[in-house]
Amino acid sequence: MGGLLPAVGVGLMLLSIFKGRARFFLFLGFLATSFLNLGTIAVALIFGIIAILVVGFNSDDFAAFRDTQENNNNAYRYITKGDLTRSWLLWHWFCEALYNYERMQGIGFCNAMVPLLNKIYKDDKAGLVSAMKRHAMFFNTDHDFGGMILGICTSMEEQKKDGADIPDEAFVALKSGLMGPCAGVGDTLSQVVLIPILAVIFINLATQGAVWAPVAYTVIFMLIFYGVGYWMLNLGYKSGGEVVLKLMESGLLDKVIEVANILGCAVMGALISSYVTFNWNVSIVQEGVEIFNLQTGVFDAILPNAMPLALTMVIYVLVKKGVKGSYITFGVMAVGFVLGLLGLIA
After folding, report:
1. Quick one: which H or E segment has residue 292?
2. pLDDT tens-digit series, residues 274-303
3. Are 175 and 153 in contact (CB under 8 A)?
4. What is the spatial distance between Cα 17 and Cα 40, in angstroms, rounded to a whole number?
5. Which residue ranges of the chain lie beneath pLDDT 50?
6. 150, 91 in Cβ contact below 8 A?
7. Comparing C-alpha atoms, which of 293, 263, 290 is closest to residue 280?
8. Which of 24, 158, 313, 327 sits in a 20 to 30 Å window from 269, CA-based?
9. By the 8 A CB rule, do 306 and 30 touch?
10. 108 vs 30, 91, 111, CA distance in Å?
């Protein structure tokens, strides 16, 4: 049972990244590990470079970033950079503190905005109340990219305080329009790619006796997670939203996601080969001598780790057809238990 169950996790994960030309890299990563004995770190490094070369980037893809540098005229008029950073940390730590179906992260977003709004509207109680109301409405997105929206809203609030004609509906429309794409990009990059890839790499090191592996995993993840989040916060604030919208429309994020999908599929292929165990224990013995073994004589001769790959792909197909993950999990456990009890797999 334990040998088969990792296939369930991989199969469920493939639902998000097994698409387009990234699908081919699942099998390439699998073959690289099965035939070349490459470790997960080597697979991640090699296919990360290959993914960037395959997708391709040009100067036009980064035009929005150049615009950010050239049009960075927003000053800290009512708040300080420290104020903005502290509010961003409040967002990161408490965005789901009052998570509910009515407002989702709305209260958490408002909680992060309150220290900034108190400074922007310190002499305007009615303006403060109105701002708190519009930022407590329904909101739901990724942690890192949500910080970018926090920065945009802060910039817009300063502009509104300075007399810009920005209606409440503009904040609602902007947040509603960005939260979906930001969640799609952010959740894919962090939860579907970054966490699993780092976990696979450092679990592999931990099983080899590296006691520092869990600490390294945590430190590296936090550095990437908070580093990207802080950059996104400042990108949102300094651009005031205009450059962010250009960035969303430029196609750069689509390319980043495709690179992430390719890398994720390659690492998942390596994971199938390394962590899913499904070996037949069927043989023909004559006079105490094994003359034929199903696993080594057929499956290993054709394709090593063929059964783990086949099991994973069956699980993926079942997930794609809408079968519940819990049903699949218990089904795999039952298969493993019965076949193991009969002595057919080892």
Report:
1. strand 289-293
2. 888 888 888 777 776 767 777 777 777 788
3. yes
4. 18
5. 69, 72
6. yes
7. 293
8. 327
9. no
10. 42, 6, 5
- Please check whether residue 40 is in contact with residue 271, taking contact to mean a CB–CB distance below 8 angstroms: yes
Residue with tokens 């709004």: 117
Structure tokens belonging to residue 90: 């409040």
pTM of the model: 0.67
What's the chain's length in residues? 346
Residue 191 one-letter amino acid: Q
Owner of token pair 């900034």: 116
User: What residue spans of 56-142 are helical by DSSP H?
Assistant: 63-70, 81-94, 106-120, 125-135
Q: List Cα–Cα distances, 142 to 65, 81, 172, 327, in angstroms.
A: 21, 22, 17, 28
Q: Copy the structure tokens of residue 122.
A: 């310190």
Smallest CA-to-CA distance from 154 within 222, 81, 255 is with 81
Q: Are 156 and 177 in contact (CB under 8 A)?
A: no
8 A C-beta contact, residue 30 and residue 299 = no
| Residue 236, token pair as written in the block | 């949102």
